[in-house]
Automatic annotation (TrEMBL):
Any one GO biological process: DNA transposition
MF (Gene Ontology): DNA binding; transposase activity
Higher taxonomy: Bacteria, Thermotogati, Deinococcota, Deinococci, Deinococcales
Compositional bias per record (Basic and acidic residues), positions renumbered to this chain: 16-25
Name of this protein: IS5 family transposase
Length: 186
């Protein structure tokens, strides 16, 4: 099942292909100003999606953190006083407001420094001892991108595109949990 002690958060930009009225799109700074949609993703330690939010490609990652944390629909177990939950973020979330949002949700934020490779490992007990593992959420984004329907957004309305994203999330979760079913029932 999902391990809720370490959460991973990141976003990726997709291209927009539909014409006409669009929602949750914005100019993509990496694609000559064409409009696009950003998929913000929050996963558990195994890469299973817990929360998804859509935004315009020109919207900063840090603005969507509270929406993703509030969008978790999985019941999070209550941990003991000595156990803490960790939130792994990339450098785009390195703001005071993101750290405050993490504190409000009782999460310890882990944001990499610019010289991650050159810094020595902190002593035991230091919250910076747990190095960020961005590859977990990167793998989750690649699972989403295997579905061609999500690579280019053809839907005009954000609610239609979000429906496809949620359907793909359900398929990903099913593929990760289905192998556990024989062990859980017997």
């Amino acid at each position: 099942m999902a391990e809720c002690r370490r959460l991973h958060c990141e976003s990726t930009v997709g291209k927009k292909g539909a014409d006409g009225e669009e929602e949750k799109t914005g100019s993509n700074p990496t694609d000559r100003g064409k409009s696009g949609t950003k998929r913000n993703l929050l996963t558990d330690a195994k890469g299973i999606p817990l929360s998804i939010a859509l935004s315009g490609a020109n919207r900063h990652d840090s603005k969507m953190l509270s929406a993703m944390l509030e969008g978790i629909v999985v019941a999070v177990p209550i941990l003991g006083a000595e156990e803490e939950r960790h939130l792994v973020l990339d450098r785009g979330y390195d703001t005071a407001s993101c750290r405050k949002v993490a504190e409000q949700h009782a999460l310890t934020a882990h944001i990499p420094k610019k010289a991650t490779e050159a810094t020595p490992l902190p002593p035991p007990g230091d919250p910076e001892r747990h190095p960020p593992r961005r590859w977990v959420v990167e793998v989750s984004h690649s699972w989403f991108n295997r579905f061609r329907r999500l690579l280019i957004r053809w839907e005009k309305k954000a609610s239609h595109h979000m429906g496809f994203v949620q359907l793909v999330a359900c398929l990903i979760i099913w593929r990760k949990i289905a192998p556990l079913a024989p062990r859980l029932s017997g």
